[in-house]
């Protein structure tokens, strides 16, 4: 925790200046080369963190700092009030935006930029806008958070990568949409879908990963000793044309 605490102190004293950005970049490199561990994750999850890319690691550092600084401020004021998720989320979003702009990871007009670079928008749901050019091996998504805090939304990408490395997400930047929602811009392998997976096929896949059904066999939610895995319905789990095996493109995953 010493390395991360040092980064927190540098941010507190300097904001997101060159010295802070350099400190965060060096910490990211230490995580990627295995000389530092990010305290939130165990060893298998650490691999998912590295796969998610340097921008996600940096955003996770900033999000953790945002929550820690709120707690410290409350303690200094002698307050015992528990912080609401919206308070944590608001500060995490604001500081991630500040950091991303300073680190050149922010796009003001991402829809136009992504369309020009990666192809037209082919799908849009409550959680993500998807861009794809025919023949490419990856899609690009603008992913909005459906989690209670931005940190949990970042965690979800890490945990997805750990559980489903064949469809690992890699963060490339951040933006806000026309409604002002913070969106995480990421790439993900394109999946050629043969058909939707059945519940039985999904059950077998997640049971093999150590999960059990959390809805008495009637739902699409699962738990393990450490994680909750939700929204595993057929529209999020396909049978891949090449492997003929179920492959998860999206889900809700979080720590218990």
Report on the structure:
This protein is about 45% helix and about 20% strand. By secondary structure, it is of the alpha+beta class. It folds into three domains: about 1-105, no CATH class; about 105-190, Phosphorylase Kinase, domain 1 (2-Layer Sandwich), CATH 3.30.200.20; about 195-255, no CATH class. The strands form three sheets. Strands 1-5-6-4-3-2 form a six-stranded mixed β-sheet. Strands 8-9-10-13 form a four-stranded antiparallel β-sheet. Helix 4 packs antiparallel against helix 7 (about 150-165). The longest helix is centred in the first third of the chain and has 23 residues, at about 55-75. The radius of gyration is 19 Å and the shape is globular. The relative contact order is 0.11.
Radius of gyration: 19 Å
- Global outline: globular
Helix content estimate = 40-55%
Mean pLDDT: 91
How many domains make up the coordinates? 3
SSE order and pairing:
Elements: H1 2-14, H2 18-32, H3 43-51, H4 54-76, H5 85-102, E1 106-107, H6 110-118, E2 121-124, E3 128-131, E4 138-144, H7 150-163, E5 170-176, E6 182-189, E7 193-196, H8 199-207, E8 212-213, E9 222-223, E10 227-230, E11 237-240, E12 246-248, E13 252-255
Parallel strand pairs: 1-5
Antiparallel strand pairs: 2-3, 3-4, 4-6, 5-6, 7-11, 8-9, 9-10, 10-13, 11-12
Highlighted features:
256 residues, alpha+beta, Phosphorylase Kinase, domain 1, 3 domains, six-stranded mixed beta sheet, four-stranded antiparallel beta sheet, 13 strands, 43% helix
Would you summarize the structure shown here?
By secondary structure, the chain is α+β, with helices and mostly antiparallel strands. The chain is built from eight helices and 13 strands.
């Amino acid at each position: 925790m010493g390395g991360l605490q040092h980064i927190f102190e540098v941010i507190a004293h300097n904001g997101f200046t060159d010295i802070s950005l350099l400190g965060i970049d060096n910490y990211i490199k230490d995580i990627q080369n295995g000389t530092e561990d990010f305290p939130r994750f165990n060893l298998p999850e650490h691999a998912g963190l590295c796969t998610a890319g340097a921008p996600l690691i940096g955003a996770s550092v900033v999000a953790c700092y945002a929550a820690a600084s709120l707690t410290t401020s409350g303690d200094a004021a002698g307050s015992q009030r528990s912080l609401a998720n919206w308070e944590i989320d608001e500060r995490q979003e604001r500081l991630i935006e500040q950091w991303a702009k300073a680190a050149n990871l922010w796009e003001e007009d991402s829809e136009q930029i992504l369309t020009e670079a990666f192809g037209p928008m082919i799908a849009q749901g409550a959680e993500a806008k998807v861009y794809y050019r025919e023949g490419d091996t990856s899609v690009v998504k603008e992913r909005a958070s459906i989690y209670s805090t931005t940190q949990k939304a970042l965690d979800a990408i890490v945990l997805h990568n750990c559980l489903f490395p064949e469809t690992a997400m890699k963060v490339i930047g951040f933006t806000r949409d026309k409604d002002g929602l913070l969106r995480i811009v990421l790439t993900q392998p394109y999946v050629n879908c043969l058909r939707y997976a059945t519940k039985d096929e999904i059950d077998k896949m997640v049971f093999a990963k150590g999960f059990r059904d959390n809805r008495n066999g009637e739902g699409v939610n699962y738990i393990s000793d450490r994680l909750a895995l939700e929204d595993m319905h057929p529209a999020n789990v396909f049978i891949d044309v090449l492997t003929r095996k179920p492959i998860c493109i999206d889900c809700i995953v979080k720590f218990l």
